[in-house]
Amino acid sequence: MIGIMTNGLPFQNRFFAEQEFHYLYDEVLHIRHFHQYDLTKYDTLILSCRLDIRSLKRYQSQLLKFVNAGKRLIIFGEILDCWFPTIDWEDSEVNFSWWVRDGGDLPMKMQNNVHPLFKYVTLHDMKWHYHGSFLPPQGAQSLLDIPNGRSLFYVDNVSFNGELVVTTLDPMFHIGLGFIDQSKPFLHGMAKWLREEEKH
Fold it and tell me: What is the mean pLDDT of the segment spanning 103-123?
């Protein structure tokens, strides 16, 4: 079972109103009531982008317990104020205009191309902009790098008993606000990968 966390902000409510993404998750959890949920029934917990940092810090121990119980925790967007241990986040300037410049590009490269996610996601699907980058822990698999060698998307199967999936990409935000077309095929790819993983 897949749960997804929300703040209940307007863009998140609009995202959850999108029927085409209902297959991504089984239940929506509100972060203010996080302590009331039985997390043992979920195999995967998705933390959507722009969640309240104070609440994330408050529930850090429960989230660590979840991923250490052999579950999958997926974190979208920035990891601000060092709220999750093991995640090395570095802010960067956001390039919002590269696609309107002659010959413009946003350099990034797929890594570990045999990862099953790439059956459903292309480099184009992941290329819109980013707000920062990560330095994955030793042994973790980066799926998307920028030229300085830091990661925009990685999978950590070494730091915990479960799996931590981390990306700076923020598709729910852009789907909820109705702009950046790549965010939809990217999130559909994520959903298809997660549902395929459930079968194994």
Answer: 91
Q: What average pLDDT does range 52-69 have in this prediction? A: 95
Contacts of 97 (CB under 8 A, 6+ apart): 104
pLDDT at 98: 64
Rounded Cα distance between 146 and 167, Å, is 13
Task: Kindly state the DSSP code that residue 149 receives in the 8-state scheme.
Answer: S
Q: Which amino acid is at 42?
A: Y
Nearest Cα residue to 94 out of 168, 184, 161: 168
- Of 177 and 59, the structure prediction assigns the larger pLDDT to 59
Three-state DSSP state, 22: helix
Tell me the H-state helices in the chain: 10-16, 53-58, 60-68, 123-126, 171-177, 183-198
